[in-house]
Every structure is written in C-alpha cells, then in structure tokens.
Amino acid sequence: MSQDNIFREIDEELRTDRMRALWKRFAPFVIGAAIAIVALVAVNEGWAWYTKSQSASASEELYAALDAAERGDLAAAQAQLDALAANGSGSYPVLAEFRKAALAAEEGDVAGAVAAYDALANAQSHPRLRELALLQAANLLVDSGSLADVEARIATLATDDNRMHRVARELLGLAQYKAGDAAAAQASFEAVLNDPLTQTSVRNRMSFYLAQMLSEGSAVAEELPAATPVEGEAAAPAADEPVAE
Q1: Distance CA 161, CA 168 (A)
Q2: What is the chain's percent helix, strand, coil content, to nearest 5?
Q3: pTM for this one?
Q4: pLDDT per residue over 108-136, tens digit each?
Q5: Cα–Cα distance between 35 and 163 in angstroms, integer?
Q6: Can you tell me the distance from the alpha carbon of 73 to that of 55, in angstroms, rounded to the nearest whole number?
C-alpha cells in the first residue's frame, strides 16, 4: 500500500470519527425537531387519529411497553409492542411500529431498524408520517450507511417547499461530510444557516459544523455568525475545541 493511500485511509477514519462525535452530540436535537414538526402539523391540520389519541386516555399497553424498555426489559417491551402493533386501535399500531424500530436501533440492530422505518415509510398514506420514517432511517444511515443510502431516502425532502427541508439538509450535510464531499456538506449547512426561518439553536449548530470544517481546512472561509446561547441546548464549543466522544 502506498504512503498516499495510508494517509488517505487515516484521513477518512478521522473524518468519520469527527462526524460520529458531532452526531452523538446533536442527533437528539435534529430528530426531536422532526418529531415536533409532525406533532405541530398534526394539531394544525386536525388529524383525526392524532386528536383522538390525544384526547383519549393513554394506552396502557403502550405505556407498559415503554416502561419495560425504560427498565431494560427489552424482551417484554418487544412482546408488548408486537401485540399492540397487531391488535391496537386508533394510532397505537403506528406508534408501536415506530417504537419497535427505535428499540431495534437501541439493541444494535441498525439494519433491522432501517428496514422497519423503510417499511413504515412505504405503508404510510400521510406524507408527514412517511417523511418522519424516512428521516429516522436516514438518521441511522448517516453513521452506518453510505451517502447514497441517505440520499435515496431524503434527497427529495431537502427542497424549500418541504416542511422537513432543514432537518433533511442537516442530515445530508453530515453524510456528505463523512463521505468526503466537503463542498456539498458546506453548501447543505449554509443553506440551513442562511434560511431566515431557521431557529437560533439550529443556526448555532450549522455555525459550529462550518467552523469545525474550517478548522480542518475542508471548508472555504466565510464570516460565520457567532453562536447565540439557547436555553435548553448546549452551546456549541469554539471551533478549536475538540468534540468529546
């Protein structure tokens, strides 16, 4: 193996490690934003399944499954979710399927979780739920899959007319960065940063990603806005501050 190839492999490993460190830190905020968008749209559009579930008493089966998962009894949680998915009423089967996919990811079965989210996306008639499933799959594939895997699921969501476009562009940017396409990653992050409707916390994340890339020499230097402290979310560190695993 030539010296150039050795250095290239080392650079790719370092870039992947940096991406994983960034994603471990910020992934909950990104996916949380997608879930919040779905909930907001559900309320605004008056989804019958959503409002019915919200007004009714919470399903004992679902809460029992969530409680079992919280306690670490994954076998019991899986059994309860399977039963709810098969026999539940209203929105509960859909909620159970989403939770089953998340549980598979938590157990380390990323391929199974991605397949479950893909199946959910294919089965959903409502676009917002379909998009949420695709984003959840892409979220897992940022780390475990290829750029093509991520693009296949969410490239069509990264358009200005889609409510999820900021989340999709952030995921694409991370996948592009991992794949070594710094120019595309920078463009994705800047598209979110320059969107006038982007929330402060999200804009801070984009600034941090770009500053991190700039410190590595992989981004074209541009003046970046200073991060604004946001209550409830950790402020992004300085560009030269290492990201802890």
Answers
A1: 12
A2: 75, 0, 25
A3: 0.73
A4: 999 999 999 999 999 988 888 899 899 99
A5: 12
A6: 29
